[in-house]
């Protein structure tokens, strides 16, 4: 005897046969099916605790008329007691914990309808790619379909192997449907969000339109790298392009260089000479460099650059107000290298930290206005000959005033111009 008597069991072994199988009473009818015996210790449903949570199922895996046993668990482990292996339950025979899907295709692989992501029908209009992975960690292989347009869908065992679009998520299946195939893996050391000292930002983008999410890493210095599916999801610097990945690595993810209020960034540009102080950037940010400029007498701009023989990026605080003498520089080779300068406006002269007392036409907070829009506002306001940008200690944010004064006749240095690019923009006397 093996197990309970058939009178009290619809699908259990009760009579061991000479070939090592058991006879089973099917659905209370006196018809018997051969079934591999299962030792109590092997995938015992009564012992499915938090550490294993396995699932036991039956199927004729090899088509010989004898029912085999399939065990899977929540960690993706799987094994099969097969009649073709003599119904043996040891790990080498069952394949535990990584039995090949060929051991029981009907239970270890989600069924795929012929119409769904058929590799034979991958023409110019779709060019899809069909792959397999255990997406949900239940030991059953799921189907993942992606195409050159970035569409993707997943037939999942946890959704009952359904192939309709709502179930597969086609054409925009969430990456959670199959993280192992829909997102490039990221090594812990690469752009680790927990390592905030590096001030980097991690984004997921389908950079190459193949339906697989790539990883884009950027930092406050303008460094950039991309782990791409088309490069095998490799994370070494030559593969990711770090620290100067070309924009072609992820055209859909625009290169956004760090900005600083009050400064205009001129990418790849520089002003020759007029340096006050130069040093390596180190752990400084663009914001801290702007503050250094604000605290340094005569500083009107700062650049970030790297010569070929420099081990890391450098900066210079400058007396130059770009873009009056800005020129493209060959040593600005990384995406966010260039010069940050106080903005200039054609027809106006910028007088840093200076102001003309009184003679105001209108004053308000700067808000989202730019120096160019303030100049336009002055031009369209009767009697306006200058405008300033300033901030008192009690002001929550910078303010401006349109003025009737024509500087520099009455210019004087004031204490409320504390940020580097504050001062007055005036129409020259000959204007």
For the report, how would you describe the main beta sheet?
6 strands, mixed
The assigned CATH architecture of the largest domain is 3-Layer(bba) Sandwich
What proportion strand? 25-35%
Can you tell me the CATH topology of the largest domain? Hepatocyte Growth Factor
CATH C-level category of the largest domain: Alpha Beta
Helix content: under 10%
Number of helices: 7
How many domains would you count in the coordinates?
5
Layout of helices and strands:
Elements: E1 13-16, E2 22-25, E3 32-35, E4 55-59, E5 66-72, E6 78-81, H1 91-94, H2 105-108, E7 129-133, E8 142-146, E9 152-155, H3 165-168, H4 179-182, E10 200-205, E11 214-219, E12 224-227, H5 237-240, E13 264-267, E14 269-270, E15 275-280, H6 286-294, E16 301-305, E17 314-318, E18 327-328, E19 338-341, E20 349-352, E21 354-355, E22 360-365, H7 371-379, E23 386-390, E24 399-403, E25 412-413, E26 423-426
Parallel strand pairs: 3-5
Antiparallel strand pairs: 1-2, 2-3, 4-5, 5-6, 7-8, 8-9, 10-11, 11-12, 13-19, 14-18, 15-17, 16-17, 16-19, 20-26, 21-25, 22-24, 23-24, 23-26
């Amino acid at each position: 005897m093996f197990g309970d008597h058939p009178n009290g069991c619809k699908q259990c072994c009760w009579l061991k046969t000479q070939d090592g199988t058991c006879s089973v009473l099917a659905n209370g009818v006196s018809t018997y099916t051969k079934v591999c015996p299962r030792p109590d210790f092997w995938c015992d449903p009564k012992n499915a605790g938090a550490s294993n949570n396995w699932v036991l199922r039956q199927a004729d895996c090899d088509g010989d008329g004898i029912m085999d046993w399939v065990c899977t668990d929540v960690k993706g482990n799987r094994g099969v007691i097969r009649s073709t292996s003599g119904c043996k339950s040891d790990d080498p025979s069952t394949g535990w914990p990584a039995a090949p899907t060929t051991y029981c295709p009907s239970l270890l692989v989600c069924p795929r309808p012929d119409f769904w992501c058929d590799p034979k029908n991958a023409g110019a209009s779709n060019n899809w790619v069909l792959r397999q992975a255990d997406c949900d960690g239940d030991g059953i292989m799921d189907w993942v379909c992606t195409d050159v347009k970035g569409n993707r869908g997943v037939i999942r065992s946890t959704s009952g192997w359904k192939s309709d679009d709502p179930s597969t998520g086609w054409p925009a299946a969430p990456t959670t449907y199959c993280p192992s195939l829909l997102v490039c893996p990221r090594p812990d050391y690469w752009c680790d969000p927990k390592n905030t000292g590096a001030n980097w930002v991690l984004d997921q983008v389908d950079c190459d339109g193949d339906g697989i999410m790539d990883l884009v890493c950027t930092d406050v210095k303008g460094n950039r790298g991309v782990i791409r599916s088309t490069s095998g999801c490799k994370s070494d610097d030559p593969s990711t392009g770090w620290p100067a990945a070309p924009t072609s690595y992820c055209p859909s993810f625009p290169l956004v260089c760090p900005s600083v209020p009050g400064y205009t960034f001129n990418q790849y540009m520089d002003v020759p000479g007029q340096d006050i102080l130069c040093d390596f950037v180190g752990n400084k940010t663009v914001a801290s460099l702007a503050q250094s400029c604000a605290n340094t007498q005569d500083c009107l701009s700062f650049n970030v650059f790297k010569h070929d023989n420099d081990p890391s990026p450098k900066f210079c605080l400058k007396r130059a107000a770009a873009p009056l003498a800005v020129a493209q520089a060959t040593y600005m080779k990384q995406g966010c290298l260039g010069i940050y300068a106080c903005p200039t406006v054609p027809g106006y002269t910028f007088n840093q930290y200076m102001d003309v007392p009184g003679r105001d036409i209108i004053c308000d907070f700067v808000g989202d206005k730019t120096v160019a829009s303030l100049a336009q506002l002055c031009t369209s306001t009767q009697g306006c000959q200058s405008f300033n940008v300033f901030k008192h200690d009690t002001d929550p944010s910078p303010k401006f005033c349109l003025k009737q004064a024509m500087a520099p006749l009455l210019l004087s240095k004031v204490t409320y111009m504390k940020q580097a690019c504050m001062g007055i923009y005036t129409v020259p006397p000959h204007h």
